[in-house]
């Protein structure tokens, strides 16, 4: 009891570290946003920024910001918030590896209201392409500015940013969230940002999660300032990496395929599709010495990503995983939603 007869609070809310499981773009973006708000954060993960394991999706992404089709208005807003943060990093923080680039999107069918057309409400310099500006076998096309993130620069940037704001990383594999509860008995908030790990964590076992293999061609070229995108009967992108003088050619999605081997048939097909979209950038037969290959596993989830909170005993567990091919496009928007959830919990601890 305190002097006035009120029970004293041993550890105030803000001093109980928030524990994040997962150091991919989702866990690290959440850590950065929470640290900016003054919370104490510890990130626990088997793979940390800088690692290159095939299952650590964030190391291998393209990673372009593209408006996703088929998502709810709330999810669109999360993407919009993410775009805002990435744009600011591109302008103010050159070491973040985020760049503003031109874009050309080619559309096969007249766009429905549910399609990626909503991107025009937030992307700068959005305009319809005129016939002749896009290949004749497409229905229409759009030009706009978007942001691309180079994960080989962005993940180390995040590692340094989180550390400089006082965040802590612990390299550790856990088999269940319960292990974390035992390791951090004072903590009340746990964020599960474990990507595909959520399929096997013993107290999560989310059977909607599935691995989805991606394989890209990394082509070194000085023509690396325009993003090309076609998402319809085929799923083809050319993602520029201006800081590395290269472009990423893709894509492919192979459910439940975990092979680390480069499939040269896929690579040849991706080069051919990219050449069709942008022959001025990708020649029919790029020199072999200018090519290398990227293989990574996306953390996909049937029905889309999970983002919610659950009270488990005296702990709040926030789940943020299953972002498939869009983790970078959602990243900082998700971070901000998680901050709001934490602040809501904080508010409930204030005596009213
Ligand atoms: C080829 C390719 C191209 C892509 N292109 C794009 C793109 O253009 N735009 C875009 O937005 N996205 C793109 N993505 C998708 C993007 O990479 C993912 O959505 C994103 O990286 C997912 O981040 P995450 O943090 O959820 O998961 P991950 O990056 O996989 O991180 C999961 C973390 O959880 C940890 N973990 C898991 N289980 C455990 C456990 N049991 N114990 C301890 N730690 C654990 C891991 O070690 C890791 O730190 C692409 C992906 C691929 C593969």
Q: Short summary of the structure?
A:
This protein is an alpha/beta fold and 352 residues long. It has helices at residues 25-36, 73-92, 151-164, 177-183, 264-277, 327-348, and strands spanning 18-21, 41-45, 98-107, 127-128, 140-149, 168-171, 189-192, 209-220, 226-231, 235-241, 246-250, 254-255, 291-301, 306-312, 315-321. Strands 3, 4, 5, 8, 9, 10, 11, 12 and 13 form a nine-stranded mixed sheet that branches.
List keywords for this structure.
352 residues, alpha/beta, Rossmann fold, 9-stranded mixed beta sheet, 6-stranded mixed beta sheet, 6 helices, 15 strands, elongated, binds flavin-adenine dinucleotide, oxidoreductase, DAO
* Proportion in helices: 25-40%
CATH top level of the domain at 1-63 and 150-208 and 302-352 is Alpha Beta
Q: What is the tally of beta strands?
A: 15
Characterize the overall form: elongated
Nearest-integer average pLDDT = 95
Taking pLDDT < 50 over at least 5 consecutive residues as the criterion, the unreliable ranges are: none
Strand content: 25-35%
CATH architecture of the domain at 1-63 and 150-208 and 302-352: 3-Layer(aba) Sandwich
Small molecules bound in the structure, each named once: flavin-adenine dinucleotide
The total count of helices amounts to: 6
Oligomer: single chain
Looking at the structure, the CATH topology of the domain at 1-63 and 150-208 and 302-352 is Rossmann fold
What is the H-and-E element order? EHEHEEEHEHEEEEEEHEEEH
Largest sheet: 9 strands, mixed
Structural class: alpha/beta
Q: Over all CA atoms, what is the radius of gyration?
A: 21 Å
- The N- and C-terminal alpha carbons lie at a distance of 19 Å
CATH superfamily of the domain at 1-63 and 150-208 and 302-352: NAD(P)-binding Rossmann-like Domain
Keywords: FAD, Flavoprotein, Oxidoreductase
InterPro entries: DAO (IPR023209), FAD-dep_OxRdtase (IPR006076)
Cofactor: FAD
Protein name: FAD dependent oxidoreductase domain-containing protein
């Amino acid at each position: 009891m305190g002097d006035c007869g009120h029970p004293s609070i041993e550890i105030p809310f803000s001093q109980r570290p928030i524990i994040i499981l997962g150091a991919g773009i989702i866990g690290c973006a959440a850590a950065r946003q929470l640290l900016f708000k003054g919370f104490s954060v510890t990130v626990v993960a088997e793979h940390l920024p800088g690692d290159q394991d095939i299952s650590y999706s964030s190391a291998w992404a393209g990673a372009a910001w593209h408006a996703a089709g088929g998502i709810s208005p709330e999810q669109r807003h999360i993407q919009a918030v993410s775009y805002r943060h990435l744009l600011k990093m591109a302008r103010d923080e050159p070491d973040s590896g985020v760049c503003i680039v031109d874009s050309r999107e080619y559309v096969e069918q007249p766009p429905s209201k549910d399609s990626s057309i909503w991107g025009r409400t937030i992307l700068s310099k959005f305009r319809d392409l005129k016939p002749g500006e896009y290949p004749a076998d497409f229905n229409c096309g759009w030009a706009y500015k978007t942001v691309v993130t180079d994960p080989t620069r962005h993940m180390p940037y995040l590692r340094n940013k989180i550390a400089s704001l006082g965040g802590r990383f612990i390299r550790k594999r856990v088999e269940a969230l319960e292990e974390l509860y035992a390791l951090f008995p004072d903590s009340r908030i746990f964020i599960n940002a474990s990507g595909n790990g959520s399929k096997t964590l013993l107290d999560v076992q989310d059977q909607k999660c599935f691995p989805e293999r991606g394989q890209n061609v990394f082509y070194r070229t000085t023509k690396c300032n325009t993003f090309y995108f076609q998402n319809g009967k085929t799923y083809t992108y050319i993602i520029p990496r201006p800081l590395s003088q290269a472009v990423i050619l893709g894509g492919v999605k192979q459910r439940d395929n975990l092979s680390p081997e480069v499939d040269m048939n896929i690579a040849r097909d991706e080069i051919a599709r990219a050449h069709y979209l942008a022959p001025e950038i990708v020649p029919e037969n790029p020199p072999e010495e200018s090519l290398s290959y990227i293989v990574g596993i996306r953390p996909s989830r049937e029905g889309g990503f999970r983002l919610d909170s659950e009270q488990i005993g005296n702990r709040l567990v926030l789940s943020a995983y299953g972002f498939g091919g869009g983790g970078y496009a959602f990243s900082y928007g998700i971070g901000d939603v998680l901050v709001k959830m934490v602040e809501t919990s904080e508010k409930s601890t204030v005596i009213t």
